[in-house]
Structures are given as C-alpha cells and as structure tokens.
Design brief:
The protein is 54% helix and 17% strand. The protein is α+β, with helices and mostly antiparallel strands. The model has no long low-confidence stretch (mean pLDDT 82). This is ABC3 transporter permease protein domain-containing protein.
Length: 415
C-alpha cells in the first residue's frame, strides 16, 4: 500500500542532509560501477582470447622440427631434425589415430613472387586440401586446393583477400590470372579469407607435391598439422587432444631417435591445451574482479549502515514520540528500512546505468590485444543490483532494530 506520508518523510530527510546522502549514494553507485566495468573487461578478455584462437582450428596440433639438445643412442646433440613425407603417411595411414583433418606444409626457400612487373612480398607455402579447415579459412572466390591438384602436381595458387586487395585492386577478380613464383607461372584458382584477419593473410598456398618437386624440396616437410574430431564438451576435447599429441610425439621421437626427455628436436603446439590454460587464467581474473567489486560494494553498504545509525541518533526523540503515540516497533523498523533501501536502490541503478552505458559506447571501439568488446550480461548486472538492494536492507535493519528497541522514556529524554 502506497504511504504518501512515509515518502514525504524520506524526501524531507534527504533534503535536510543533501551532502551526506549524496556521498553515501556515491559510494554505493561507484561500487556497482566498478564491479560492472571489471566484469565487462573480464568478458572482454575472454572474447579476445577466443578471437586469438580463431586463427587456427580449435583442436589443431601443430608440429615442427628443432635442434636436439641431448645425446641419444650414440648420436650427438645439436642434430637438425627433418620431417619427411614418410612421417606424415605413417601417422595418417598406418597408425590408428583419431583424426578429423590432417595436412603438411613445405615452405620453398629463396623464392621470389611477382605479378606482371610487381613484386609480391608474401610467403609461399605448399600444402594439402585440409589446410583450409585447419587454418580456419573461408573461400570468397574460386576454390581451395584439392586432391587432383596434389596428384597431378598442378601449378595453381590460392591467394588471400588481403593479397587480392593489395596486388589485384585494378581487376574485379584475380581468378584465372597468373603469378610467377621464381619465374614459373602459377594460375590463381581461389581467394581465401582467414577468420583471424589480415595478419594471417600474408600467404600464398600451392599444392604440396608441386612445392616439393618444382622447388627442389624432395620429400622434405616443415610442419605437420592434425586435428581431432569434435566431442561433447570442452574437458573431453582437451583430454582427446592431449592423448593425440602424446601419440604423435612418441612416434616422431622414436622415428628420429630423439630422447624422450629432450626439450628440443620436435616442437608441438596444442591449441586445446593453450585454450584451457588461457580460459583458466581469465576465469581466475574474473573471480578477482568479482572480489574487488564486491569489496567496493560492501564498503558502500557499510557506509549506508553508518548513515542509518546517524539518522536513528538524530531522530531518537522523534522515535520516542512516535512510540508514545502508539507506533508499533515494526512501524519504526519499516520507516528506517524504507529510507535505507531507497538510497541503496537509486544509487545502485544509477551506477548500473552509467557503467552499462559506458561499456555500450566504448566497448565495440576498444582495440587492445586480448580484449575485445567488453560487455556484461544484463541479467547478471540486474541480479547484482538486486543483491545490493537486499544488502542495503540488511544494512538498514540493524540501525532500525536499535531504533525500535529504544525505551520510550529514554527516547523522550534524548537531547
């Protein structure tokens, strides 16, 4: 039931103590503001890390060669390991590995690339048809490499949208155009777009067989890349990926006589392990943000409780008169709680509106490494404010209970 007199009392009290009420409300509003901003940047970090992993397939495992560091089976340290086609075919065809996609890369050395009379300063990479999926790429024109290109050693190339924009801006479509790689003509058959953006679009892809035979690569390989199939949840995906990595690592170390404890020889990057590590880190950071924000809110709620104690002290005589006229204890408690909840709620929603508005305005425009579009779920923010209102009620209850417990005679004697 709407009690007009109660609201008049609340506004009269606020008008008499404008500065005190403002400072109390400011402490509460700032607590909500800080919490929402921190949570927003915590979510922004998760978005940023997720974007970082868009550069390659989420479950991909990348393997490359390094120099051995330990002696093993009579072999000296410092050996340069070299992958061969046999390593790839053994892993793919002879071992019972749970694979979704697989590919290999060979990077021709000392090649120059030109279009007409213009030099193209981009990296040439020989690979297979599955590279499109492992590199997380979409075709915007033409097609990617296929099995026929590999088997027939065709001289075809796939360029990126960035290369098209920078080197072929004068024509509508580069499909069918020819580029020269070390004075050998390659026909452009497709244009790809990488989800990670321009930084991953400095590469020209040609068939692995062509890169090895035309550019004296023999059967050498620079990278092996595999991915495991999707599973029900993240933890299962991590376990599956770790198991696949262990099997690949064990075979390659045995095949190339590398000590099991040698930190060199072979390098392996497991995207799922990286993702788990980063997500755990951001989860801990978000917990820390919650802790800092809640501590700030608690400080504001304590301020509300202290102000209510002062209000009770100032209105002790008034409370005594109310009780002498027959006011019930819960009526006194309700009067104090009403003011406490009102100040807390208004301050909390003010802090929420300002923080959500700020995130909405600047969030999409933030361009910082590992932070993308900081934002907060509105339901979470509302739940936080409602929790704050409850906390404000609790903060006001104890001063209100003290007010209701004052003996009428003592209250009337108060000066």
């Amino acid at each position: 039931m709407f009690d007009l007199e109660r609201w008049q009392e609340i506004f009269d009290t606020i008008r008499k103590n404008k500065l005190r009420t403002f400072l109390t409300g400011l402490s509460v509003a700032s607590g909500i503001f800080i919490l929402v901003i921190l949570l927003g940047f915590g979510q922004g970090m998760q978005n940023g890390i997720a974007k970082e992993f868009e550069s390659d397939a989420a479950t991909s495992i990348w393997i490359w060669t390094e120099t051995t560091q330990n002696a093993y089976k009579g072999l000296n340290p410092g050996r340069e390991i070299q992958f061969r086609n046999e390593d790839y075919t053994t892993l793919v065809d002879k071992m019972d590995l749970n694979l979704e996609h697989k590919t290999m890369f060979y990077l021709p050395r000392d090649v120059t690339t030109t279009y007409k009379n213009d030099a193209l300063i981009y990296q040439v990479m020989g690979t297979t048809k599955d590279a499109q999926f492992l590199e997380n790429q979409n075709m915007v024109q033409g097609r990617f490499l296929n099995w026929q290109d590999e088997s027939q050693v065709t001289k075809v190339a796939v360029i990126s949208a960035k290369i098209k924009r920078e080197a072929f801006d004068a024509i509508d479509s580069p499909i069918g155009e020819y580029i020269k790689i070390s004075n050998i003509l390659f026909k452009i058959i497709g244009v790809y777009k990488d989800k990670a953006g321009d930084r991953e679009e400095n590469r020209i892809f040609i068939p692995i067989s062509t890169s090895q035979k035309v550019f004296n690569g023999s059967d050498k390989l620079d990278n092996l890349v595999f991915s495991s199939p999707p599973v029900a949840n993240f933890e299962q995906a991590v376990q599956q990926s770790v198991h696949l990595k262990a099997e690949i690592d064990t075979y390659l170390r045995q095949a190339h006589s590398i000590a099991p404890d040698d930190e060199g020889g072979i390098g392996i990057n497991n995207q799922m392990e990286n993702a788990k590590r980063f997500y755990s880190l951001t989860g801990n950071i978000k917990l820390f943000f919650w802790f800092v924000g809640l501590c700030t809110i608690i400080a504001g709620v304590v301020g509300v409780s202290n102000i209510m104690l002062i209000v009770v002290k100032e209105r002790t005589k008034e409370i005594g008169i109310r009780k002498a006229l027959g006011a019930k204890p819960w009526s006194i408690i309700g009067m104090i709680l009403h003011e406490s909840v009102f100040v807390t709620a208004i301050s909390g929603f003010t802090g929420l509106i300002f923080s959500m508005g700020l995130l909405e305005i600047i969030g999409p425009n933030i361009e910082v490494d590992y932070i993308v579009n900081p934002s907060v779920d509105f339901n979470v923010a509302m739940a936080t404010v409602l929790l704050l209102v409850v906390a404000g009620a609790v903060a006001g209850f104890f001063p209100a209970w003290r007010a209701a417990s004052i003996h009428t005679i003592d209250a009337l004697r108060d000066e």
